[in-house]
Write a structure and sequence with these properties.
Number of helices: 12
Distance between the termini: 62 Å
Strand order of the largest sheet: 3-2-1-7-17
Radius of gyration: 23 Å
Helix content: 25-40%
Structural class: alpha/beta
Oligomer: single chain
Bound molecules: flavin-adenine dinucleotide
Length: 448
């Protein structure tokens, strides 16, 4: 019987991936996971669809409940927050919802504390609960069901935009206020414009270049309006989607290193430098970006699950490595699909990387086939070699998952000249005879 004890802080994607693989690898290991909320292994990604009413029951967002994990031999402690880590003594201090503190020893530790909303330093934010956990989403939906027609979304990143669409689906009047000059800062400006057009076509009022100065509250502390320097927007409901930062305070206080990205520094085994038995994974940890050749913090469920698994393998004596990320992401925004991978022109510029770039417009299906609609594909490549460095796709249904072809090409360092003749599939319901990805690659190759 193993006398070791693996402790995990954070009971969602990264933490419970680590716990589950550790359980499979070592049936005798004692595994304890601390989660301050009531749920484990929930899909934050599904929250906008639950808020919209597309998913009726919040339970559907839970892929494994605390009891299911317990039945799998993982000692899950919900509503139990870890408030201190003592790395020398290998001991955690926990606090229950009732305020009781306890000490919990560990031999190995996986830190998977995720991310937390970056504070928006304006009056009134204290009244707005971030809708980033399932229980918070349940409270938001109950509030929506009690009434109120006007919704204001602050921040036009993908989460803000998904929430805006959710409010539209509920029949509400939606205003989205963004400080930057475009929506979706992860896209190049001209690709983001198509997403903005889609939002406006659904009736979302998009206000760009405007900083919110106050969330105006009534006497009971409920929102009634959102105020910028120039205007006031009525608001029965407010969602803040201005970004999250890695939740590292606890680990930093314990002496673990935080990198320039603001996330916990880890090596490619998810191990915290200088601490053989301590691992970090998911939104709280840094990743190596294979195109930028830099340590970054990109908060995505895809990375969290993989990194958690690798941390769990290595915490139980294995030797798996995380190969890095290229920032591949998709979303459905206001009836359009959006995908991105690698770097965009704006990121290349920021990093001082010279690139060539092309954008093409095509149709998602053969022009005569019902449901065909616009798709824009933008490619960014290395001058000379033609190596694909990034791609962005915006379009109607069927557009987004094409990003995975581009992600594979970026990952493998495929030149656009080769991509242009890649043996991709064709039938009228899915594409023209040349897929838009091939057309974009050919157009980019011409520039080299
Ligand atoms: C609305 C929304 C939509 C999203 N959509 C997508 C998507 O479409 N695709 C995608 O790839 N990603 C998406 N994401 C991001 C994705 O959900 C995260 O990247 C992923 O959940 C990160 O997993 P994690 O385990 O690292 O962190 P989290 O999911 O944040 O889990 C961390 C857990 O740790 C707990 N915790 C923190 N500190 C402590 C402590 N001291 N003690 C005890 N417990 C603690 C927290 O309560 C939390 O449950 C979305 C996120 C949101 C909010």
């Amino acid at each position: 019987m193993s006398s070791q004890r693996l402790a995990i802080i954070g009971g969602d994607a990264a933490g419970m991936s680590a716990a589950s693989i550790a359980r499979r690898r070592d049936p005798d290991l004692e595994i304890v996971a601390f989660e301050r909320g009531p749920y484990t292994s929930y899909s934050a990604c599904g929250i906008p669809y639950y808020v919209a009413g597309l998913v009726e029951d919040a339970d559907r967002l839970i892929s494994r409940s605390p009891d299911e994990h317990r039945n799998n031999g993982i000692d899950v402690r919900t509503r139990c927050e870890v408030v201190a880590i003592d790395l020398d003594a290998r001991r955690l201090t926990t606090r229950s919802a009732a305020g009781e503190e306890a000490h919990e020893p560990f031999d190995q530790l996986v830190i998977a504390t995720g991310a937390e909303p970056a504070p928006l330093p304006i009056p009134g934010t204290e009244a707005i609960e971030p809708a980033t956990t399932v229980d918070a989403a349940e409270r938001l939906r109950s509030a929506l069901e009690r009434g109120g027609r006007n919704a204001v979304v602050i921040g036009a990143g993908y989460i803000g935009m998904e929430m805006a669409e959710a409010f539209v689906d509920r029949g509400m009047d939606v205003t989205m206020i963004e400080m930057a000059s475009q929506v979706m800062a992860t896209l190049d400006a001209e690709m983001a414009e198509h997403v903005q057009d889609a939002a406006e076509a659904l009736g979302v009022q998009v206000v760009l270049g405007a900083g919110v100065e106050e969330i105006v509250l009534d006497e009971a502390g409920a929102p009634v309006a959102v105020r910028t320097a120039d205007a006031r927007y009525d608001a029965d409901h407010v969602v803040i989607g201005t970004g999250s930062k890695p939740a590292v305070k606890l680990a930093e206080a314990a002496g673990l290193e935080v990198g320039p990205s603001g996330a916990l520094r880890v090596d490619d085994r998810q191990r915290c430098p200088g601490h053989d038995a301590v691992f970090a994974a998911g939104d709280c940890a840094e990743s190596y970006h294979r195109v930028l050749d830099a340590r970054v913090n990109i908060q995505l469920g895809t990375h969290a699950n993989k990194q958690g698994r690798i941390a769990g393998v290595n915490a139980t004596g294995g030797d798996d490595r995380f190969p890095g990320v290229i920032g591949t992401a998709v979303s459905k925004i206001c009836r359009y699909e959006v995908g991105r991978t690698g770097i965009g022109e704006h990121e290349a510029q920021r990093a001082g990387i010279e690139v060539v770039a092309t954008t093409i417009k095509d149709r998602t299906r053969a022009g005569y086939y019902p449901g065909a609609g616009p798709i824009w594909v933008k490619l960014v490549a290395e001058p000379g070699s033609g190596r694909l460095l990034g791609g962005q796709i915006v379009g109607v249904e069927g557009a987004a998952k094409r990003i995975d072809v581009l992600a594979t090409a970026v990952w493998c360092g495929l030149p656009v000249q080769e991509l242009a003749l890649l043996d991709l599939s064709y039938a009228p319901p899915f594409s023209g005879v040349y897929d838009p990805v091939l057309i974009a690659a050919r157009a980019t190759a011409k520039l080299l």
